[in-house]
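writing this on my phone so excuse typos. first protein, seq and then structure
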Amino acid sequence: MMFNHPPKEWGPLEWLVAAVVVIALVAGAVTWNSSRPGPCGDGLEEIAGECVGVTDHAFDADEKTKSLIKAVADENARVEEGWENPSGGKARTPYVRIALMMPFTSDESSAMTGDMIRRALAGAHAAQLEANSASGPHYQLLFAPDGKDLSEWKPVVDRLAELTRDTRAPLVGVTGIPSSTTETREAVTELTRRGIPTVGPVITAASMNSRYFFKTSPNNEQFAKALSRYLDRYPQEKKGLLLWDSREGDVYSQNLREVFDRHFGKAYDLKNHNSHYIGSSGDDQGIPRRFADAVARICRDKADTVFFAGRDQDLPAFINRLAHEGGCDRGGGKLRILKVGIGLEPTLTSDDIERSLRRADATIVDASAYDPAWEKASGEAPSGLSPFLARFKKIDSEHELGTKPLADGYAAMYHDGFALLASAVDRTYGEINEGGKHTPDPALLPSTKDVYSTLTISTINGGACTGCLVGAGGTYGFTGPGENNQWAVCKPVPIIEFPPVARSDGKEKLPLYRTYRGDKAKSCPS
């Protein structure tokens, strides 16, 4: 038989115990929620649907980029473990941090495409692995996403400035700034104000200058000088058209238009022969990529040279329009489409684009920071390319980097951006620790001001260079503080033709142009 007993009433002791349990559960939940990473992961916050901030951990990004981000995060963890958990009685390996400040997500109108992001990250990671295989301090490569359109830089810079004051593993520099825009100009100005050495691996707008901002790529002025030598060699009829991107806020395209007009405006009468379009880097200023007027002017004026002052992602649409609507009798020679860039974007050398170029009887002439032919061990390939290729090809085999992952030059130049800072750290570290002979415990680590000072100390005299970077994109250095606006000296500038032009005129190949030193002659290291 079952009996139902009335519930026992709680006394003061039971109520006290229950209250304590509830308080403990609430406190635990609050602590857990406040300490666990947000939806973007440790060190990042979600702003306008994107992860923004600074972290050394893996985080959510484009699907094809996740494995590469994890590989960098794993290397960062290994570096930290080497300091925290020395085995066999070995001394801790000191380490510093370099931040990669750029977008890690993309869409149709973003500053970098998904392939550009992966190749840039792969190049920087190759340089990280190279630096961590040597003696001296090791390196964490921090992720510093600032939004797909580069607009969320303020919280990133604030956090980077905090990390420079970390005495155990300080931030010593920033690399990765990918585009010349109003937003990146403001970010660079603030990084300089905070005294943080910063590298723009693929910046080319000649107006992107700030005291602590170093550029490993040639700028638009130097690209134009290399193109000028090309046109002197192959002038044709000098019937030109300046095709320029009118998008507001695009510092790169605005500067390139000014440079082209200054260098070629008079000879090619560009004041009376130009056309503009709205570029695709954004969707807020009208319909992008409208090239009907440009194609009509090329036919009407029988142009033989187009000066393209825009971004690579817009060029295929122009070439296709030219092929389908530019079937006019221009007369004269082949139409040259002159552009500048870091390399030759794979979208510009696809089978479809090659057919369009041949149909339009046109060729791309690109003044570049990197020549895809260097991969084939050309005689002009930089001496620092081989060790980079060995590491990069292994990374490429393990991750999804897209078609022709070296052709656009991003991997090589992002490698050089990281390597430039790491080289300066190594040189400084050796000096302040007496060349490693009497390294104190803990070792003295360079500050951002030490690294900046080292970056500005290089001597280029004829074929000799003291303090130069031997990089995947060439051997080059920088002059003193305030000189040359921190643009690289002796950076090679190859000229690439696609499709290559067959010539029977016996004119030998142009000597390789070097920034601020003319051709290679006797003034730059080989």
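second protein below, same order as before
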Amino acid sequence: MKKLLSIIGFGVMLTALAANQNKIPANQKLRMAEAAVAQFYVDTVNEDRLVETAIRSMLEELDPHSAYSNPEETKELNEPLAGNFSGIGISFNMNQDTLYVISTVAGGPSERVGLLAGDRIIKVNDSIIAGVKMRNTDIMKRLRGPKGSKVNVSVLRRSAGKADTVEFTITRADIPINSVDAAYMVDNKTGYIRLSRFSAETRNEIETALKDLKKKGMKQLILDLVDNGGGYMQPAVEILGEFLEPGRLAVYTEGRNSPRYDHMTQPHGIRPLFNDGRLVVMVNQYTASSSEITTGAIQDWDRGVVVGRRTYGKGLVQRPFPFPDGSMMRLTVAHYYTPTGRDIQKPYNKGDQRAYAMDIVDRFNHGELMHADSIKYIDSLKVETLRLNRPIYGGGGISPDRFVPLDTADFTKYYRDVTAKGVINQYAISYVDANRKELKRRFKTDDDFVKGFDVDSSMLHDLYARAAKEGVALNEEQARQSEPLFKMILKGLIGRDIYDQPTYFKVYNEYDPIFREAYRLINSPEYDAILRKP
């Protein structure tokens, strides 16, 4: 009877609308279509999935960044930006289908119970996770859980030439997700900060890093935003408050139904922590969103010099619309504009997701990533910086003051094949496993390691032999060509496993062309020449 009434009701609605067929509201038409499928389709349908598909398809007709996420996807999206999650507090890698503990979070749950770097977790509660080709995401779901809950893990620990199984019960706790990957002194006056994302805790992390570096004598700073895909907007405004004078325009947003809103800088304390002294910002083609807000404001106000390659060009403001079931729609409502009025968003055609996704490939094919003269500047989009009236250009993304070409010479097919098999990680893990105590004895600090450790020919020989066992035949010519890259990655991974994440960047930066140019420039008269200072 209930179904009959609903069918009659649907028929009455159709009849009423047919009499006024040119005035059917779009949202009503959508509801009618879903109701018709649900009630009359020949087979059983999953209405929830139909609605989700309809929402996703609708958003795909808009801009490239409006999107829908189901409850699980929403949780995964928000977790890194929230700044913490509840878990056991380890960083790990998968080595031949076994979870290998790289390090434990200082003061975290795993460290407190005695878990050690080099341990292999083979079982979580009743689930064996070793040798079963389990995905990282599935492993993390087992290790993470509500704060205060307990998880039992079985660990294989090698000591004195033998392996023992050790059982631990770990009480989960809040684990911070750091946005500052590294902060160290490059020399006695140059600081370096590597920022990987803009999250809820970014301001506090940057503030801590700046204060620590200043205590160590920092007079000038390299801010590394390479590959930083962004995150929350507000932390970008907040950290700009430490680099610019108070009350400066950091960014403004504006859209069809969103009037212009200016976001102004304000230091966390009485005065900015670093609004004087040389500042170089490192960027590349994957620097996006909040990173571009930060970079654009620093460039617009002539506060520092931007080094690298044109940034991604993501300047659309998404407003979240959460649904009661935990899913969410992120809808673009405005554009981000730098203080000079440059639209950060690169051009796009609505509904053409493929062309938008291929933009970086197109840049590569057109030579923009390798040759400065291949970058196309549009005169109508030229503006001047706000203090020194330097010419800069809009058109999508932030173009650097000093271009650094992408160097692909070391990226041979052999290197890609070895990397794809996970051989470099596997070898680094096994090398550290066998030499951890000796390396720590030889190199008391990570600085000692960076200066004194070298990947020798015997290590490379062992690496190539391991790759051959994994089905990657040695190509001697390409191996020689990629040797500097093999050495750098291997040394960085070994250093990270023995010490911490910043060690990797200390090693990598000696190789990285963008860092090398940033460091050269910050110590050169060219810095003042770019900013036209006497």
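Confidence is low (pLDDT under 50) at residues 1-5. thats all i got for now
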